[in-house]
Design brief:
Elements lengths: L1 H14 L2 H10 L6 E5 L7 H11 L1 E2 L2 H9 L12 E8 L2 H14 L3 E5 L1 H6 L4 H10 L5 E4 L2 E4 L3 H16 L4 H15 L17 H8 L4 E5 L13 H19 L5 E3 L5 H15 L3 E3 L18 E2 L6 H9 L6 H14 L6 H6 L2
Parallel strand pairs: 1-3, 1-10, 2-3, 3-4, 4-7, 8-9
Antiparallel strand pairs: 5-6
């Protein structure tokens, strides 16, 4: 219901002309750069997103856009549309089957942030392991860290899911995270094998990356070696290794410089000073977060903002989100958004602020 209400709000903004007004207003604010952050690509209608964005924005590879942003005097630009970058994190297999084909067909630049450790093993990403392990458990009862869970009871199954997620999310090292997952897999009796149905959610391979790198519309950045959350690593040298070695491995396989980095998870509490220091020390030129907002020539190049979006969102919602229409006349928008969100049973403005920021 909430998604439908937000799409309705976005449709009202679009067809009333407010989205167009928002785009016009942005162009008058000086040089600004929006970076979009996707992950998977095979659900929803990514094609419609890309067609809309290509029509109204000047789409660039990330590094091209950042060079232009931070050295505007050395780049003569005749196209006055607002620059926008499309990025995908993690390197899912569907980035190859969907993004690659669309980028080439529509001639749209896309930047993908890769995790070499997962490319090497082909394993399921750790954030997908919890649901898999609980869903495929072969036992009806399990004791983990002194707590007994009855998997035939939905509430206890949910509690177990939350406990596993918290433990691996806040792991103090990659070794601790992987050792814990092995232990849980054994206790639950979940099979290790990956099915063909899951392939879309598996990491891309070096063979597929080799094919993609020959396409001028695909570029790559670094996303650590094993996707730990950098702020929670207790050993600073491990954070440095994860950031540095990822770049080394990618440059070896891509045979080209890798200058951009994406922080895992990407909010500042997940990055920490340790994450920023590691990126600087590794010699990257830029690093992107998942903190919502625009970027300007005065932005911190190691804490660049991105707007998180998903292909299943309606293109009208994407149009409203990237137009910055919410900041154009915020007081005028409050009343209709509050009314519609009340119909959806949501706290006034909270959902709209999250989705349209």
């Amino acid at each position: 219901m909430y998604d439908k209400v937000m799409t309705l709000i976005a449709a009202c903004l679009y067809y009333s002309g407010w989205v167009a007004l928002g785009r016009w207003w942005m162009q008058r604010q000086g040089l600004r750069l929006m970076i979009l952050n996707y992950h998977t690509a095979n659900e929803g209608d990514l094609r419609q997103h890309l067609l809309y964005l290509r029509h109204y924005y000047r789409l660039l590879h990330l590094e091209d856009a950042l060079e232009e942003l931070f050295s505007p005097s050395s780049h003569e630009v005749k196209d006055r549309r607002t620059p926008l970058v499309i990025t995908f994190d993690d390197g899912y297999y569907d980035n190859y089957t969907h993004c690659f084909a669309l980028a080439c067909e529509l001639q749209i630049p896309i930047t993908i942030f890769l995790v070499p450790g997962y490319i090497e093993t082909g394993d399921r990403f750790w954030w997908l392991e919890t649901d898999y392990l609980v869903t495929h458990a072969s036992v009806s009862e399990v004791m983990i860290e002194g707590q007994t869970y009855h998997l035939n009871k939905s509430q206890e199954r949910e509690e177990l899911t939350r406990a596993i997620e918290a433990r691996i999310r806040f792991a103090s090292s990659v070794h601790e995270r992987e050792a814990y997952l092995r232990e849980v897999r054994q206790l639950l009796g979940a099979p290790y094998a990956v099915t063909l149905e899951e392939k879309k959610n598996l990491p891309i391979s070096w063979v597929e990356i080799e094919a993609m790198k020959r396409c001028e519309w695909i570029s790559f950045g670094s996303h650590t070696m094993h996707h730990p959350i950098l702020a929670y690593l207790t050993d600073p040298s491990e954070a440095e290794y994860e950031v540095r070695e990822s770049r080394t491995e990618l440059e070896h396989h891509l045979e080209s410089p890798v200058r951009s980095f994406a922080y895992p998870v990407g909010k500042f509490k997940d990055i920490g000073e340790q994450g920023v220091r590691s990126v600087r020390k590794a010699g990257y030129a830029w690093a992107v977060t998942t903190i919502n907002g625009w970027n300007t020539p005065h932005s911190n190049p190691y804490l660049l903002h991105r707007l998180s979006v998903d292909p299943w969102q309606h293109w009208l919602l994407i149009a409203a989100m990237v137009s910055d229409v919410r900041h154009l006349f915020p007081n005028l928008l409050k009343a209709p958004i509050r009314f519609l969100l009340r119909l959806a049973g949501r706290t006034p403005l909270t959902g709209a602020r999250d989705s349209l920021s």
